[in-house]
Amino acid sequence: MRRPMTVGNAFPRHGDGTGVTSDVVERGNVSLSVYLRRLCWSPERLAREINRVAGAGTISPKAPYGWLKGAYPRGNVPDIVAEILSIQLHEDVTVNQVWPTRRSGQIDSPHGALASTTGNERSSRLDTDHLDTWMDESAPSETAPLPGAHLISAAVDWLTEPLPPPRPQPSGVELTSEALELIDNRIAQLRHLDDTQGGPLVLDWIRHDLRWVSGLLRNCSYDRFQAVRLHQHMAELAQLAGWLAADLGRHGNAQRYLLVGLRAASKAGDRQLGAHILSCLSYQAAWNGLGKDALRLVRLARKGVVDPLRGRLSALLATREARAHANLMDVAAFQRAAAEAAESYASAGSVVDPSWASWVVPAVLAADEGRSWLDMGQPQRAEPELVRGLTLFGDEQPRNRLLHTISLAEARLDLGELDGAAEAVHAALELTSHLSSKRVRDRLAKVHAALARLDSASSRAARTRIEDVLGPRSATIDMGRPHAC
After folding, report:
1. How many C-beta neighbours within 10 Å does residue 172 have?
2. 360, 290, 352, 362: which is closest to 324 by C-alpha?
3. Which of 50, 75, 97 is the last residue before a domain boundary?
4. Is residue 82 part of a domain?
5. Which element (helix H / strand E) includes 65?
6. Where are the alpha helices (DSSP H) in 220-290?
7. Are residues 127 and 153 in contact, defined by beta-carbon separation less than 8 angstroms?
8. Looking at residue 104, what DSSP letter applies?
9. Where is the segment annotated Disordered (predicted)?
10. Burial 306-326 (b: 16+ CB within 10 A, else e)
11. Cα gap 292→286, rounded to integer Å
């Protein structure tokens, strides 16, 4: 059993390399000193971290020395410090705990640094907000998207500065192998629900399990292997939450879930999972028309995998790079990346793919290629690839089938094949279990707008069918630029 940390045993009498000496501990902010000791951080390291997440020049490199002597930071800096410590220590840390003797009249922000900022200021405040803060039921339901520069910075950190492996935790309730197996099974069930049902209810279940695993990390005792597995579980759940949140149009939340997952995957030393999460951030950027960010993110992901040319994950990364090139209208680069995706899948050989990559099949590659051709304004090349992909899907992956069937309707409308487009609309609307997906609703609204400009029996019937499903008001909203599927 680990001896409880107290002020008396937490600090040696002489400096130990952290820059926090015993005379400072005795005279100043003992609480902040304890947190820095637990992280093995110097005051300068804390300053660097604050400036990294809040913007260069937020504080001076020596400012934390003043805090250790009893000074209180200005503005939102205390909230930012509490957020950073919470993330690093996997536990809730409030401003009151860091500065228990701060001057009266100052109140903790209920949601950390994010609560007192809005718009662009809020989006650039932290690149990885503390999980429990903004997932809490009382937190705002949606947060502003983060700037692309923050995502790319996190990706570069993942590639060049892997986090140290998690430590075993000797105190707390013992974590059993049965509990880890239960989490494995639970994640598999949630993946299945994401594919077959999706929607806010499944996202709530995933959020619940994220909080559960986060609690196990804080409160249980486990060995080094179990610590790694818990971080892998946290990364998988955060990836699932991010993917579902993006599908629901909650892009700021999605980014934050994915960044939490990226950090957990880095702690676990799981480069494949980290690359997958980065590719999700890339894909999300492509959905929103941010092709340059999408391309940089997925290229960083591809640099981080051991075997970048074989297997399902490699095929997925290549096809997502292809989508980024398509977003930028670079046909030649798109074709090269699409060919790499097909070759990676075909040459998998003895590569053992992770279970979470099992959905990457030839149908996905073909249909994604078709959607890319459509985005590049070439419906004549998109239509046959979409048909091929949908045929290969069979009865699997209903959400992907729904999205790609709507894309097929778009392609046929662009080609002037009105009856074929109407047929695709009717086929898509047979798969109505994913109508909570914002991508699906946006795509259907776009098709409805195109059908409204036509005057034929088949187009009127298809338009009426969309209105029956979405409602006439939702179906006629101008959705603007279409999101990729």
Report:
1. 15
2. 290
3. 97
4. yes
5. helix 63-68
6. 224-247, 251-268, 271-287
7. yes
8. T
9. 1-20, 102-126
10. eebebbbbbbbbbbbbbbbbb
11. 9
Domain presence at residue 213? no
d(CA 219, CA 285): 36
Quick one: which of 278, 51, 238 has its CA closest to 134? 238
What is the residue range of 416's domain? Answer: 375-485
d(CA 282, CA 270): 19
The per-residue pLDDT for range 181-206, each reduced to its tens digit, is 999 999 999 999 888 888 888 999 99
Alpha-carbon distance of 284 to 292, in angstroms, equals: 12
Domain boundary among 65, 97, 129: 97
User: What does the DSSP assignment read for 402-444?
Assistant: HHHHHHHHHHHHHTT-HHHHHHHHHHHTT-GGGTT-HHHHHHH
Residues 67-82: what's their mean pLDDT?
Answer: 85
Most confident region among 20-29, 107-116, 341-350 by mean pLDDT: 341-350
The model's pLDDT over 48-74, given as tens digits with 9 standing for 90+, comes to 988 887 777 788 888 899 899 888 887
Examine residue 107 and state whether it is found in any structural domain, yes or no: no
Name the amino acid, one letter, at 409. Answer: A
Question: Is 13 contained in some domain?
Answer: yes
Structure-block tokens of residue 207: 């959020």
Residue 288 phi/psi, 5-degree rounding, is: -95, 15
What's the structural domain count of the chain? 2
